[in-house]
Specification:
5 strands; about 20% helix; alpha+beta; 5-stranded antiparallel beta sheet
């Protein structure tokens, strides 16, 4: 089967038990080579499925995990590899992000 290129947008959340830490959200865009949108979605989930824990520069124990795959769509470009992370944005207010996404979905 011929693979097509898809763009997948995922949302990750970074949290800490430290009261000084503010939850951080990240929107990440991937290019995924897959035979279908379902295959592309499964590959994106697999890429993000594991939680990641580390100690930040400020000394906080941070845990990052995937919240959801926001969107998966076919693109017209050609990518040499099966998957590449191409963009990431960070934000702290997830509710505001969801309101923004709703406005985009409503065509505003």
């Amino acid at each position: 089967m011929h693979k097509k290129t898809y763009v997948a947008i995922a949302i990750r959340e970074s949290t800490s038990a430290s009261p000084e830490y503010t939850t951080l959200y990240e929107e990440t865009t991937l290019l995924v080579k897959a035979v279908s949108v379902e295959d592309a979605t499964a590959k994106a989930v697999k890429y993000f499925r594991n939680e990641h824990t580390y100690i930040s520069a400020a000394g906080f124990r941070i845990t990052t995990k995937m919240l959801k795959i926001e969107d998966v769509n076919e693109i017209l470009g050609i990518v040499d590899d099966d998957i590449e992370e191409i963009n990431a944005r960070f934000f702290r207010d997830y509710e505001a992000y969801n309101k923004f996404r709703e406005m985009l979905d409503d065509g505003i």
